[in-house]
Amino acid sequence: MLALSLKYLLIGLVCASLKAEFRANSINLSQLDPLTPNKIRISQGTDSPVNINIVWTNNKIIGLSNAVVTKVTGFGEDLTKKHSIAFKVHGGVSLVGDYIVSGKILILPIQGEGKSNLTLVDPTFRIEFSGAAEEKNGDIYMKLRNFRLPIEPKSMIYKFDNLFNGDKALGDNMNKFLNENWKEIFNELVKFSPNIHMRNILRNDYIGDNSINLSQVDPLIANKIHINQGSDSPVNINVVLTNNKIYGTSNAVVTKVTGFGKDLAKKHSITIRVPGGVSLLGDYVLSGKVLILPIQGEGKSNLTLVNTVFSIDFAGVADEKDGEVYMKLKNFRFHVDPQSFIFQFDNLFNGDKALGDNMNKFLNENWKEIFNELRASIEKEFGAVVEKVIGQVYTKYPYAKYFNE
Ligand SMILES: *[C@@H]1O[C@H](CO)[C@@H](O)[C@H](O)[C@H]1NC(C)=O
Ligand SMILES: *[C@@H]1O[C@H](CO)[C@@H](O)[C@H](O)[C@H]1NC(C)=O
Ligand SMILES: *[C@@H]1O[C@H](CO)[C@@H](O)[C@H](O)[C@H]1NC(C)=O
Ligand SMILES: *[C@@H]1O[C@H](CO)[C@@H](O)[C@H](O)[C@H]1NC(C)=O
Questions:
Q1: How far is the CA of 37 from the centre of ligand 4 (A)?
Q2: N or C: which end of the chain has fewer CB within 10 A?
């Protein structure tokens, strides 16, 4: 029962943040641009005027970053309602890569193999589905039902290179024919495949166990991180990390959620476990002393947390603005608990390899004491990033809106 409500809460939380994004009318899909779908295959039967067999491989879908959400319904607490998102892309969305085609379009034979570029011009996409609860091993999972992906382009541009073994006259004519009859051909083609791919994308976000798939924010880009430990600490160092990316968060699994209900004043907390390593990779500049050893260097670093539990908690405080109640975060706390920590600072001591290797060895052998000394700074620096992300979700709209239909 507890697990069940946790899962609903979690789905609610994910939906609330998505909804917040959608309501802001600008989902930033740049992480999905380009998208790299698996093989796409369309096999149209002889009862269709477009009787072809086409396989696209190594394709990219380019252009989704210009998507603007125009309408959202559903995504409330009730997962069984119909959910839909409509978005419009200004400009083209192109499927670009390799193709193999054979068959007939109307009475014309078509055959070829090479590069293709299919472009939907100013398309509108609607993603529609309803959720259904499915019980597995006593837990409730959300499954997508009645998934549909209607696509309405203003027009469509086909470009198949190397049709008919490179016969230019035949190939140019066929492309011309396809473009002149784009609408009829498109209507025949969409009866089939693209749904499958979008369904797989959504599946990662909405279905599953209690794993949140953070692959879209993996790597995460961290701003400059400055850790400055005072001289009263045995680890008296000054580290500045720049151009860093955080890798490995896509394996995150939520193990506990409390709060996040209608009562904003309750304590909200999330516990996330990340199996494997979470690595912070980038440039560092370091100087100071570790115990009695001087340390100094500048170069690339790889700081890896192993099998880590992250916990976040905060209280909600009502913040009234223009007669509406928003949630502000108070007493935000971020805890990091790794099973171990691996330091790799390249080019310590101006590249003196013996000194550098020894220092890395020393840091790793004493990781626990060093990490504990640095923990407060680390939690403060990273907590600030996480707090900002969560805070932004809730400052966009009055709190009650997250639970409205
Ligand atoms: C989208 O996010 C990327 C980084 O992920 C950023 O560079 C870009 O400016 C953002 N675009 C918009 C329109 O906010
Ligand atoms: C694909 O075709 C569209 C429309 O003709 C064009 O704007 C776009 O640049 C092409 N993309 C590539 C990668 O060739
Ligand atoms: C997360 O989603 C990506 C695609 O977006 C997929 O390749 C990966 O396997 C998923 N990871 C998990 C743990 O489900
Ligand atoms: C960073 O260090 C971890 C732990 O040693 C290692 O598994 C990972 O491959 C390293 N990453 C890179 C890019 O070197």
A1: 28
A2: N
